[in-house]
Design brief:
single chain, alpha/beta, Rossmann fold, 2 domains, 10-stranded mixed β-sheet, 10 strands, about 20% strand
Length: about 290
Amino acid sequence: MDMSVVHGTVVVGVDGSEAGSAALLWAVRAAALEGRGLTVVHATGFAGAMDDLEDVLASERGLLSVGRSIVGEAVREARAADWTVGVESVVTTGDPSTMLVEASETAAMVVLGARGRGAVVSALLGSVSAPVIREAACPVVVVRSAADVLRDGPVVVGVDGTPASTAAVEHAFHAASVRGRPLTVLHATWDLREHVSSVVDLRTYAQKVNLSEEEERLVAETMAGLGEKYPDVAVTEMYRRGDPVHQLVEASRAASLVVVGTRGRRLVRSRLLGSVSRGVVERAECPVAVVRP
C-alpha cells in the first residue's frame, strides 16, 4: 500500500459520508489554526475474495475511481472552506485503519468522523476508529457533526498523573491557546466508599494518603511548566468524585473539545485500560482528542 503523507500535516479520512464531511471541516479549521497543511486521505478497502485476477484488478480499478471522486469532492470542499490552507490528497487500496495508522507516523494529527453515539459508535470503533486510536503515533480526533466545527466553550482535559495524561494536558494547552479558549483540567476519582469493605478500611486508607493533597499534587506535576509556556490560557482546575467517563462526558456538553490520554493508573484505573478514552469517544457531545504518551 503506497502511503505518502506530507510531514506535519493534519490528516483527515473521508469516505463520502456526512460524518466524513464533518471531520473534513473540523480538520480544515484545525489546520488553519495550527498553521499546517491538510492531507485528505481515502482507502478503498479490499476488493474481496476473487479467483480471477482480471476480476480483482477490475474491482480495484473501480474502487480507486470511486475513491478519487470522493477525495476530489473533499478537496474542493476543503478549499472552499478555507483557501489559505494547503491541501494534498492520497487515494490508496487496502484497509482504512491500517492506512490511517501508517499516515499517523508523519502526521501532526489524524481526524476521523463518527456516526452518532452509543452502539453505533461502538460498531465504528470496532472497525476503524479503535485500531487507529490504539495504534496511531499522533493525536487522533473524533468528530460527530458539522456543528462541532464552531462549538464554543472551553477545552477540557482529563488528568490522572500518568505519562498519558501529561501528554494529553500538553496537547490541551496548545489546543486552547491556538483556539483562544480557556482550559478546564478535570481530575475525577472513584468514590473510595464504593471500593472498600468497611468503614475501618476507608479510615486506614485515609490515614496513609491525604487524597485531596495527593490529587492536587498530581495535577500540579502534570501541568508543571505549561502555564509559563502558554501564559495566554486561563486554567480552571476541577476535582470530582465518581466515574471519570461520566464526569468527562458531563463536561463535554459545554466544551469545544475534550482531550484524554489512552492509559490509566493504579489498580482501579489499570483495569480500565483504554475504556476511559473509549467511553468518552462513544458518549461525549463534542469532538474528542485521544493522545498517547
